[in-house]
Amino acid sequence: AVLNQGTVNWHSGYLRSGHEGSFTNALGATFNDFNPSGYTIHNPFGGSFVFTNHGTYNRNAANTTSYVDVPFDNTGTVNVLAGDLQFRAGGTMATSGTIAAAAGTDVYFTNGYTINNGASLTGAGTYWLTGGTLTLTGSIAVGTFNQTGGTLAGTGTLNGLFNWSGG
After folding, report:
1. What is the pLDDT of residues 113-137, one digit of tens each?
2. Which of 3, 30, 76, 124 can pair with 103 through a Cys bridge, CB separation 3.0 to 4.6 Å?
3. Residues 6+ positions from 38 with CB-CB distance below 8 Å
4. CA triplet 80, 156, 126: central angle to 5 degrees?
């Protein structure tokens, strides 16, 4: 298990674990994602590996995408300042969780994610559901949300622009 209580600057390479491993970005801590495309947060070893964000996760690498291929649980803030971020292995965003996507950025949910009542998807960026099941509980604020695949489930309400072209 890795616990960040300060600042991590991820510039290159894979972030990986398995066998019940975890990476926790603690309350008050910062994880800066400057990672170029092609590197992922993933589990090549079997068992489980969860990335938990209680602090601030900043995605800041223009014209590239970071892929999170393990469950990503968020009670803190994710700022997508540049580039794109894809959650490809599910996770949960708690009531206190926020994702803020800047103009020109995209956030993708591609495989089973739950967003709880009170959480928010803010900013001028675009949010996408392209696969899997996105479960909403309660009212979720969102700027622009596009569904091109997958299943939107739950008893929630999206408050914002919703473009539905598939799924």
Report:
1. 999 999 999 999 999 999 999 999 9
2. 124
3. none
4. 25
